[in-house]
Automatic annotation (TrEMBL), chain A:
The lineage of its organism: Bacteria, Bacillati, Actinomycetota, Actinomycetes, Jiangellales. Belongs to the bacterial solute-binding protein 2 family. One of its GO terms (cellular component) is cell envelope. InterPro entries: Peripla_BP_I, SBP_2_dom. One of its GO terms (molecular function) is carbohydrate binding. The keyword Signal applies. Residues 42-53 have a biased composition (Low complexity). Residues 103-357 form the Periplasmic binding protein domain. This is Monosaccharide ABC transporter substrate-binding protein (CUT2 family). Residues 24-57 are annotated as: Disordered. Keywords: Signal. The keyword Transcription does not apply. Residues 25-41 have a biased composition (Acidic residues). It holds the Pfam family Peripla_BP_4. It comes from Haloactinopolyspora alba.
UniProtKB/TrEMBL annotation, chain B:
Keywords: Cell inner membrane, Cell membrane, Membrane, Transmembrane, Transmembrane helix, Transport. Pfam families: BPD_transp_2 (PF02653). This is Autoinducer 2 import system permease protein LsrD. GO terms for cellular component: plasma membrane. Its main location: membrane. The chain crosses the membrane at residues 20-44, 56-76, 82-99, 106-127, 133-153, 181-200, 231-253, 265-288. GO terms for molecular function: transmembrane transporter activity. It is a multi-pass membrane protein. It is found in: Cell membrane. InterPro entries: ABC_transp_permease.
Length: 407, 347
């Protein structure tokens, strides 16, 4: 028994001592430790600058360039615009019915809830006009296996005239999407991609690299060299979020900003507030970069409650944050992962049924909200809840505004 | 407590007894661990020991301590309450939706939250005790029901906003010179601590432990076990509602409020040396367990420990600490005449 006591006491001290030793080093080296821990050995092919498995240089450069391109299509309907479209003919997909089927990954966060409402309102418009007969939906609740069987069920039923898929993960859903393509009905994929190009069109905003870069560039421009920036992230290992962080790292690496750390918060307001408070206890924080705006208000409150000056802030086009931004007058930017993209798949389905051409990769515009157009977006979204996204793009739909207010 | 007192070297000084109490296992281990963690934090970042930082720590830790107290009542009575995390989330979302930024609705909505908490606790308790469904299943079901019902009601994400008045409890306090802000959360916490200690020393507290220790014996000696246990579930739910007020006040509304809190609370209680299955452990140690868990999170932050290995380190420390404390139970206990009278009744 005595031995056991010594052993377990030893274990506790050893762990405490170990953690103290391994990390009691200058802040910039812990970042490397962090990356080394996350990154499996991939044969040394990682590029310098960002030794990150999630970083693809060519895609990064493409997305950054796409931000400056003028999209084709009507300027007042961004959900119909496309950047560098390559059109495909759709005559071969003519259908003798108009049942639209949608396999949704989940409605697990406010961004998806907002988009899902917009999509339903868009469907209503086409139901009233007779273009869409039945709209059949299955929600996978974030479960890959459930979504695979949802898609299979649509295929087996055989009466879907088009299948829209918002995949929950990329690699796992690829075979299911391929199976849907093989059934002969037009397949439309949006939001996250899959590793195949068998669908008629893949709809998405510019992407995560552009999103991450928008915020990081804003910090570099608005902070003095040597300023300290804290990065707050939701989860590791989710491609859309990792791309945002990879792009930000790329830009921070070329700047004179000091990155204090990157912390995972799961988007939980209490965790965010606690984390930021602790960083403020240790020293100054001049800027905050976030990979998604969930809980951005809590981060700002941490500065208020500890009596510090407002940081230069990267949030999102979530209304709660935008209202706080206006109220405090701080220097901030709201990157947007174009929520209006939820309208586009419905438009695409109707176009395909009508034999109109659609872009094979439908890249939607993705612009951050800046101080210049902030108030305009706040006016347009007056009366909307805090967890609503300013660029939802549904102002001209019949259910506006009640459908989004009474969610 | 039936073991015969082990022979005691007389004239044994109090210091030795105190040391034994601190490092000799049982509930005391958690206090030692807490001291060690705080010492390490103080070395890593002396700034943490300044009053404003400590107040910020208390403000952040208060909800977990309150949840741990609630969980202690249930665990010591021989049950488990997995529904508290969902309940915290539900209460915050309900509050935001019903208050919707209107200051005048703050107090009525808080009363409604209290009523809702009582109802949830009653349902948990009555299903467990009268229908004889194991509390693991009852409260797991309640956790899912609350989680699903809230998402059904709100369409997946919270709406509305909390009023400034509602947020005061978790965010505000009395402005002062030394500590910057003496948080209301501290006053609420002290009140809960005192109430919990008094309750555990009352006849109810003793029957609660008796019911957890040996249900049949307690029943034969006239305890209405089902009533005692149901009351424990109600206490747990009411305290979870209070924790919801503090958490919502501290950080506002997000869709993730309360996620995973039930396991953090159970961890805290177990770390405090309270035995799963009931009948052993003190409420003060459970609270110390909650403070230790929060301090551990703080330590990880202060060390800039990579987020990826934090859960592993946390797991090792918790298992080691509980194993160290459990060692106490497998050998003859320190005689009751020693420095710790009344160990099992919540001193």
């Amino acid at each position: 028994m005595r031995k056991l006591r010594v052993l377990s006491a030893g274990a506790v001290t050893a762990v405490l001592a170990l953690t103290a030793c391994t990390t009691d080093e200058p802040a910039d080296t812990t970042d490397e430790v962090d990356q080394a821990a996350e990154q499996p050995d991939d044969g040394g092919q990682s590029s310098e600058g960002s030794g990150d498995e999630w970083f693809v240089q060519a895609e990064y450069e493409k997305q950054l360039a796409q931000r400056d391109k003028e999209p084709e299509g009507p300027a007042d309907k961004p959900w119909l615009q496309a950047i560098d479209p390559e059109y495909v003919e759709t005559a071969e997909y003519a259908q003798d019915g108009n049942t639209l089927c949608f396999s949704n990954a989940s409605v697990a966060n406010p961004w998806r809830v907002t988009g899902w409402i917009t999509m339903q309102q868009q469907v209503q418009v086409y139901k009233d006009s007779g273009d869409i007969g039945e709209f059949r939906v299955s929600d996978a609740g974030g479960d890959d296996n459930k979504q695979i069987s949802d898609i299979q069920a649509f295929v087996d039923a055989g009466d879907c005239n088009a299948i829209i898929i918002s995949p929950s993960t990329t690699a796992t859903l690829t075979p299911a999407v391929e199976a849907a393509c093989q059934s002969g009905v037009p397949v439309i994929v949006f939001d996250r991609g899959v590793n195949t190009d068998c669908m008629v069109t893949f709809i998405h905003p510019i992407g995560g690299y552009a999103y991450g870069a928008d915020g990081a560039e804003f910090l570099v421009e608005n902070l003095e060299p040597g300023s300290k920036v804290l990065a707050l992230r939701i989860l590791p290992g989710v491609d859309v979020l990792e791309h945002r962080w990879a792009a930000a790292q790329e830009i921070f690496a070329d700047s004179d900003l000091e990155i204090l750390g990157n912390e995972f918060t799961e988007g939980d307001a209490a965790t965010i507030k606690d984390t930021v408070t602790q960083y403020l206890q240790r020293g100054e924080v001049d800027g905050i970069w976030m990979d998604a705006g969930d809980g951005a208000v809590a981060a700002v409150e941490a500065f208020e409650d500890t009596g510090n000056d407002y940081p230069v802030m990267v949030g999102e086009d979530e209304l709660g944050f935008m209202r706080k931004w206006k109220e405090t007058g701080m220097t901030a930017i709201a990157p947007a992962y174009s929520n209006f993209q939820w309208r586009t798949p419905i438009e695409a389905a109707v176009k395909i049924w009508n034999g109109e051409k659609v872009p094979s990769e439908w890249v939607l515009p993705q612009e951050p909200i800046t101080e210049e157009d902030r108030d305009e977006y706040l006016d347009r979204n007056e009366g909307m809840p805090d967890l609503h996204y300013a660029k939802f793009g549904g102002e001209d739909l019949p259910g506006f505004p009640e459908a989004w207010q009474d969610r | 407590m039936t073991q015969t007192p082990a022979p005691q070297r007389q004239g044994g000084n109090r210091a030795a007894g105190l040391l034994a109490a601190l490092f000799g296992g049982g509930s005391a281990t958690v206090f030692a661990l807490l001291v060690v963690i705080f010492a390490v934090i103080a070395v890593v970042n002396p700034g943490f020991m300044e009053p404003p930082s400590l107040m910020a720590f208390i403000k952040n830790a208060a909800p977990l301590v309150i949840l741990a107290v609630g969980q202690y009542f249930v665990i010591v009575a021989g049950e488990l309450d997995l529904s508290v995390g969902s309940l915290v989330g539900a209460q915050v979302v309900i509050a935001a939706a019903l208050i919707d930024g209107e200051e005048s609705r703050t107090v009525p909505v808080m009363l409604l939250m209290l009523a809702f908490g009582i109802v949830v606790g009653l349902v948990n308790g009555l299903i467990t005790t009268l229908l004889k469904v194991h509390s693991l299943i009852t409260t797991l079901g309640m956790m899912l029901v609350l989680y699903g019902a809230i998402r059904l009601w709100t369409g997946g994400s919270p709406t509305g906003a909390l009023s400034e008045g509602f947020r005061q409890a978790g965010r505000g306090g009395i402005e002062m010179s030394v500590v910057r802000l003496l948080p209301w959360a501290l006053f609420i916490l002290v009140a809960v601590v005192i109430a919990a200690v008094v309750l555990m020393r009352s006849p109810y507290g003793r029957t609660l432990i008796a019911a957890g220790d040996n249900e049949k014996a307690a029943a034969f000696s006239g305890v209405r076990v089902w009533q005692v246990r149901t009351a424990a579930f109600v206490l747990s739910s009411v305290l979870a509602s209070l924790a919801g007020v503090l958490i919502g006040g501290y950080a506002g509304v997000t869709a993730q409020v309360g996620d995973g809190l039930e396991f953090t609370a159970i961890t805290a209680v177990v770390l405090g040396g309270v035995v799963l299955g009931g009948g052993r452990g003190t409420v003060v140690a459970a609270m110390a367990g909650a403070l230790t868990v929060e301090a551990l999170f703080t330590l990880f932050n202060q060390l800039s420990l990579p987020s990826t290995i934090r859960p592993a380190v946390q797991g090792v420390i918790i298992i080691a600490a509980v194993a160290y404390a459990a060692r106490e139970r497998s050998r003859p206990a320190v005689p009751a005449t020693d420095a710790r009278p009344d160990e099992t009744t919540g001193s």
